[in-house]
Every structure is written in C-alpha cells, then in structure tokens.
C-alpha cells in the first residue's frame, strides 16, 4: 500500500502532499521535513530506494523517489509494493503531468493544486493503484477539463475580473519564478 | 537517476504562458510571491504575515453577507488547500466545502471533495453532512459523480463512512451496468474500507463475482480487482481459491503476448507490467497450485520471464528495463515463496548473481535484497554462497549506504560454519569505515555470528575484543555482557580470555568498554595468568588502576569490585588495594555509589577472615543459558517483520549448535529482559552483611499456631502501600506468620529495594518463593538474593531479598510481589503491591518564584493540569504536611506563593526514556478542613496519577 505521496522542491518546500493514512496535521508536516532530510542528502546516481523515516513507520516502509530537476517525487510504501513498479508509477505520474500541463514545471504544481490532485486521484486511490495507463488517465482529465470549460463559460463575467487579478500577480512574482522554474 | 526528459523549462527562462481558461485564474496569488522562496527567516516571517492576511481575507469573504459565486468559492478553497500544504493550520472553510458537495456543477463538487479528502478529520457533525452528499452522488447514476464519491470514501476511509457505505459498495462493484471506471473505483474503495474496519464489510455472494472480475475485458478493472482479492484472500483463503487458476491464465496471456498486443497497457514495450506484478503478488498468497495443469502453465510463465531477462532489451530507455525487471523480481519472489522447484531456484539465484554486478544501482540493491531471502532456502543456500566475493566487494566499494546495508544483511544471511571466519573478518574490516548509522547493527551482527559459529572460543574472544577496539562506542551493553557470560560459562577459554584482555589493556588508549570487560575478567580469572611474572598480580592491578581515573562512575564502580576480588585472589595485593580504597578520593567521593563501595570493601577486607572473604567473593556461578540477549536486541532493532528473516538465516540444518543454548527456541523467546542477564554487573551487590536486623526482636513478637486464619495485623495492605508513597522504609505487610519489611533508596531513575521476610513462627516455611512481576514500564530485576532463593525459611529467621529497579518510562501501576510458601503443609500465597510509585523517581528542583511562575504558565494546557479538592483525613499540621511533601520527593519552595499557608513544590521525574517536570501547589483551608491540590506536569497521565497519590496522604 502507498502510505503517502510527497512532492517537494530542492529547498524542501512542499508542492504536493497526499497521505493515505490518517496522520495529524503536525505529523504530516514533520513527515515531509523528515523525508526531505533523508532524501536530499543523497547523491545523484545512488539507488532510488531507502528505508523510511521513523515518523512514517520505520524500516518496514520504503521511500521510493525520483529527483527531477528542482523537484523530488517521493512515494512512501509498505512492503507489499514492488519497488521498480512504484518507480515506473512515478514516471507515469510525471509523464501524465507533463501531458496535462504541456511541459510541466514547478509553478504548475503551485498554480494548480487542484489539478495535480485530480490527476493523482485518477492514478492512486486510497493508497492503491487505480490506473497505470497514461492515455486512460489523460482522457479522464481531458473530459474533466471539457466539463469545466463548459461550466466556466457561463461565468464569463467573473473570468474577466479574475484574469486581470491574475495578470497583476504574474508580474509580481515573475521575478521569483526565474530561480526555480524547472530546467533540463 | 532517471533522465529529466519530461520536465522541461521554457527556453528563455521566463515563466511560460498559462493556458487560457478559468483554471489559470485559480492561482494562489498573494501567497505565491513569498511562499516560493523562503530560505531566509525574513522571508519566513513575510510568508506568515502574508498568509495570515490572506486567511483573514478569505475568512471575511466566507463570512460576508454577499453570497459568493461558484468561481470565488472554488478559488478560495484552492487557496486554503495551498496554505495547508505549506504547513499552516486551516480551521475554517469546512462548511463551505461541504456546501460545494451538493452543487450541481462538476467543478464545484470536485473541489469540495478535494478539500474534504485532504482536510477533514473525523469531525462527527460534518461527517454526517458529507455522508449525505456522498449518498446522493452514489445514487445519482452519473458515473463522474459516483467516482468522486467513491474517491472521497476511499481517501477518508473513516469508520463512520464504513458504517454508512460498506454494504452498498459491493453491489456497485458487481452490478452489471456499472461503468468500468466506477467498478475500478468501487473495488479500491471496498479494499480501503476493508483495511480500515474489516468487520464492516460483509462477505457474501458477491465474493465469487469479484473473483470473476479477473476475466474482465478492461485491464484497469482487473488491476483493481487483483489488489482487492490479494487483501481479502489473506483472511479467507478458501473463499477465493478459484482466483489461482484465473490469475495464472491471465498472467500467462500477458507474459506470452507480443509487446503490441495490449496497446495502452504496454509500457515502454513491456506488456502490462503493473498488472503482471500484482498477479505475481497475488499468487504469493497461496501455496503452489495443486492442479497439475495450472501448475505446469505457471511454471511455463515463470520460465518465460526468466528467459526474457536474457534477451536483448527492446529499448535503451531505463523505463523499459525497469518495467521488465519489476516483473522479473516479482517472479523470483514467487519462486522463493514456493521454495519447491530446485531448478527454478538456482536459475533465480544465477539471475540475481548477474544483477549483483549490474551497473544500475537499483538492480544491485534489489538483487542483494532478494538474495537475502534466497539464502534461507536449502536448495539455493549453496548457490548463494558462491557469490560471497561479489557481496564482500559490494560492502567495500558501493557508494550508496542503502546498498551497503543490504550487502551486510546478505553476508549475515549467507553465513554458515564454512565461511564464518571470512565473513566476520570482512565485516570487522568494514566496520572501521562503516557509516555511523549502521555501525551498531553491524556490531550486533558480528557478535552474533562470532558466537554462533565459533569453533574455538579463543577466536570468539578475539573477535569481540576486536569489535570493542574498532567500534567501542557502538558496542552495547548486551554485547559485552554476553562475552562475559560466555567466558564465565566455559572454563576452557577463561585463561585465554584473561591473557588476551591483559594484552589488550596494555594499549595506550583503550576504550572504556574494554576496561569494563578487562576489569571483570581479570577480577574473576586473573589468577589463571598470575603465574607469569609479566602479568603478576601487582602488574595486573597497576594496569587496571592506571585506567581508573579516566573512566566513568559505572566503570569505576566495577573496578572497585574487581579490586576487592583481587584482595581475595591475591592476598599480596591487599595492602596496596586497601591504600587505594582508603584514599580520600574514594572514601569521600562525591558519588554515593563509589563512596559506599569503597567504605564497604575496605571494611570487608579488614574485618572479614580469609574464609569469609573467599565465600563472599566466590567465583561467579555459570549463567543460565537463554536466548542470546544480542539476538533479542537485533530483533528489536529490526522490528517484528525482520526478526523472522533473521531466524530464517539459520534454517541450514548443518549449522546446529555445538554452541548450546544460543539458538533461540520458542520456549525461551520470552525470557526476561536482556539487561537482567548479567546479575550484578550494573551495580554489584554490596557484599556487606544485611543491616544488623534491628527488627529481629519485633519479628518474633508472637507465635500463634493458627495456620487457618491469618488476619493482617495493623494496616491493610492497601493502607500500608499508601503510607509508602511518602516514605521509603517500614513494614509493608504483617500477619501472624510473616512480616515483610521494606528498606529502599532511589536515585534518579534507579532504585534499590531490600525486602526482609521474617518468619514469625517456630516452624520452617517450605518452598518459600517471592517473585516480582512488573506489569508496566518498570524494569525490576532481582539482584542478589541467595538467602531468599533458598526455599526454606527457618522458624524465627529472616531472609533478605534485594531488588534493583530501573524506571524506563512513566508508569501508573506498581509492580506486584507475590509470595508463596508452605506452612505446616498448607500452601500460603499472598500478593502485594510493591511500594514503588512514580514519585520515587522525583528529583527535587529548587527554583526562584519568577522561574516557577514562568514554568507554571508554560504548562497551561488543560490536560497538563490535574486538580483535586478533598477533605482532610488527618489533623492539618503544617510541619507534618511539609514532611510529607518532602517525602513525596518534590522540593518545597518558600516565598513563592503569596499566601504563606500554601505549599508550592517542584521536581523532575527521572525515567530512562524521558524526564517529566512537575509543579505542585497545595492550598489548605483550615476552616473548612479541606485541601485543594493542583499538579501541572508535562505529561497528562502523570499529572493525574501524582494528584491521586498525593491527595490520599492528607
């Protein structure tokens, strides 16, 4: 079973956290920090598996992670999952994100918390893998987008107001973004 | 590491253009600028400020009169989610999210469900509303809504949800008209509910239909169904037995299909890798298939997978080989699980052998891990052993500590008598450079292997001494206790051990653990090497004493015991040693333990005759054999799962013991805690005679011959127990036959208790056996009670028992003393609470009024405080109260409370695991004859418990 899925950047800032076991809010944050601490000190080119930290449940659990440019994708799993299988799953997840966001970068995860969660929900449910077929997942997400768009069209007025707001913002933060957009 | 082909940035480094559409506007505008880059405290502060502002804004929006439109609701809920992700508490918005659930719009419903699955805990009021919305959506027949609802159930998975929906979901799962995506979700939802509360999921006729989902057209449905069945069949293997043949045929179809057959489920040229892995996992829940045809088909599959591993890869991409190898490793796991096909096992072993030298670190890691389980199979143990050089090489050269750790595990698993010396010496060599994180584990492993496969014990002693030399800091008590046990129990090695430690101690710098082992062994067996002028008694003594001043108190205490043993062994050293004991630095040592030892040993050596000395300081008797305490420790370290793997390592029938008693046997697994092993090492018993029994007179007050009725004299046991809360010495129990007196002392988290059993009759007690059971987190071990162990107590005699007590954690229930004996043929039994309460481990703390109030305020959570108002049971005398509070263990603080009538105290409870700070205040009200007692501690149960205890004293 997958116990948690965490994404954080090279500085340990969480970009997504999804827990499939009930942990208190404090513990969730501690787990993120602990996991970041464990994963970030590892060299590149070492293996992608390590024993889980104490908070997530100790050595019966494994952390399986991949590091893409500025982001770490970490899956905490128990012994019933195949390590390489999970590694593939991370790849599927990232490829799906890439398809849905057209060249995904860290900012997408910030701006579209809901979307990322929805994509993840199409893949993993209650800690078990729901679907591994990328096309299937993308189809589902596209269908959702269509639904959204048709609903949004009815709220045209609000969009205008919103987009203005959004544009202002982008100017404010574009300076910050330079430093952490994902590079190849 | 994988390539980064997927994540690309825009070429000019600028933020790329958002796609148009509503979603793009639901960003987290105001938090973004700061939250992205908070490496400095300045940013952190700015972030918090910004977020608080944003939260206030959202709150006012939610509370405002103007009804929010759907888009804004969605925007704000999204912001809350992001703020929560950054680690800030969200204490509102739940209601808004619940409202979104009943919206007709998909987007709103979706965001509502998202918020709830991330943020809702079992808040009962809301759960009812949420359940209502879910119920509507499940009944809506709109597959999208149904999926959202199922997801929410699976993500929250609380018991309330289980109660509400466990019965409905199987119906949805097997309904003929459910869409594939709904079936998929329903299967996993059911799985989640079953895991959370198995009792809620009713088994029924649907189970058979679930098994048939393995034949479903849609691979996603099959994947979900396999997960569900794998979990359900653990509990009811027979109900799901039919899944074996279905799984085998499904697997066979996938394995033999061409890489293009399964279209979308082909991942980098590998057909349905995830499903294959899941099917192989499912099969590991069952023994090999009984049906010959099914078995044949399965073996064929397994062989095909093994064959495919040898084929050239269809793609150079790492994803291709990952997927292929995921199936391969799962296949090997299944082969190991069946453990019945020697041919396949050896092939698996060879395959893993190839991986051991693969350039992919992941594969080397997994190969080492799988081989560990393979090593325990008798068919492949020998085949695994052929890879020993590769594994040793991995231990030396791998860059990744996780891989090295697996290599160490594998060496441990493949070790047997034939290669023990090589493996142990390699592990020792590795230890010099090993990572700190795994040193202790390696030390334990070396210690176990050295003991288990020792052909001659001199090798064993050498190995352990080497261990101490190389990694002394990581050699735990269990390890050096164990070497002492073994040396004590085997007289063929004692001389060698004495000689070796003597040589080891000559090193200019040696580890304190070495001094401990050396001190103990020379004290017991130094006479065996005393004949050699190079290690004559004075030389031995001066060598040990040269280390004395550099050692900790515990080691010095041990050395003092060694010195008194020397006086017995070598009378010629008596004068020198008495000189040392008499020195002011010993007799007036600030440490009570050292001082007491010095005084007692000095007196013993000058008062006692040689005979008495020889009896008191007789050689230690052999230790009873039991499970190696080291093994127990390693098991504890690795957790329950790994413990069986450790034992598996010794399935090898040839390895059975010449080392008697070391093998763990089921009957001895529950032996007392390891630290009870070496009686007397932690603090050797004072050999001085028991305090001349002042009680001897009153023990014999009365001799009634009334074996039938023995009413307690004086206070009832409960009252007696309560009296001991504030004092340490006195009579714990008395009836017409027996009196039990207690004398105890406590220091930090340790305590020592002397129990005196007085036989008040003129008839001998037979089979007298007092035993102590400690239910809680208190570790008691009976230190030295030879007289009490004698099973008779003569009429009018008194025997003494010493208990050493260590408080590991805070505890509520005191240990129980149960005393059984036969008096005049009639069995007698009584059980008493031993007067060990948590307050015994109080260290009084003095502090100024200001500090007191500051701490008092810090402990202001409601659960940290316990208060009791009660009527005085005794006359209200300030002096008596003061004495009781001091006896309770806290420091009394004057001039803290403005009212001089009140008492204020402070102290720290010392346990091995933690310290609990305690503050107390007692307010007497003489007019009403009442007291109010308030306790604040950093741990809730402690506050309550102390309050109860103390309230009964006044």
TrEMBL record, chain A:
PANTHER family, per the entry: ADAPTOR COMPLEXES SMALL SUBUNIT FAMILY
Keyword Transcription part of the UniProt annotation: no
Oligomeric and partner information: Adaptor protein complex 3 (AP-3) is a heterotetramer composed of two large adaptins (delta-type subunit AP3D1 and beta-type subunit AP3B1 or AP3B2), a medium adaptin (mu-type subunit AP3M1 or AP3M2) and a small adaptin (sigma-type subunit APS1 or AP3S2). Interacts with AGAP1. AP-3 associates with the BLOC-1 complex.
InterPro entries documented for this protein: AP_complex_ssu, AP_mu_sigma_su, APS3, Clathrin_sm-chain_CS, Longin-like_dom_sf
Entries under Gene3D superfamilies matching the protein: 3.30.450.60
Pfam families (UniProt xref): Clat_adaptor_s
SUPFAM superfamilies given in the database record: SNARE-like (SSF64356)
Task of the protein: Part of the AP-3 complex, an adaptor-related complex which is not clathrin-associated. The complex is associated with the Golgi region as well as more peripheral structures. It facilitates the budding of vesicles from the Golgi membrane and may be directly involved in trafficking to lysosomes. In concert with the BLOC-1 complex, AP-3 is required to target cargos into vesicles assembled at cell bodies for delivery into neurites and nerve terminals.
Lineage start: Eukaryota, Metazoa, Chordata, Craniata, Vertebrata
Gene Ontology CC annotations of this record: AP-3 adaptor complex; cytoplasmic vesicle membrane; Golgi apparatus
CDD domains: AP3_sigma
Annotated organism of origin: Aotus nancymaae (Ma's night monkey)
Cellular localisation: Cytoplasmic vesicle membrane; Golgi apparatus
Recorded superkingdom: Eukaryota
Keyword annotations from UniProtKB, A to Z: Cytoplasmic vesicle, Golgi apparatus, Membrane, Protein transport, Transport
Transmembrane segments: none
GO biological process: Golgi to vacuole transport; intracellular protein transport
Entry's family note: Belongs to the adaptor complexes small subunit family.
The protein's name: AP complex subunit sigma
Domain AP complex mu/sigma subunit: 1-147
Membrane topology designation: Peripheral membrane protein
TrEMBL record, chain B:
Biased composition (Low complexity): 664-683
Record Gene3D superfamilies: 2.60.40.1230, Leucine-rich Repeat Variant (1.25.10.10), TATA-Binding Protein (3.30.310.10)
Keyword terms of this UniProt record: Cell membrane, Coated pit, Endocytosis, Membrane, Protein transport, Transport
Signal peptide region: none
Biological processes, Gene Ontology terms: clathrin-dependent endocytosis; intracellular protein transport
Keyword Nucleus included in the entry's annotation: no
InterPro entries for the chain: Adaptor_Complx_Large_Subunit, AP2_complex_asu, ARM-like, ARM-type_fold, Clathrin/coatomer_adapt-like_N, Clathrin_a-adaptin_app_sub_C, Clathrin_a/b/g-adaptin_app_Ig, Clathrin_app_Ig-like_sf
Domain Clathrin adaptor alpha/beta/gamma-adaptin appendage Ig-like subdomain: 722-835
Protein's recorded name: AP-2 complex subunit alpha
Species in which this protein is naturally found: Aotus nancymaae (Ma's night monkey)
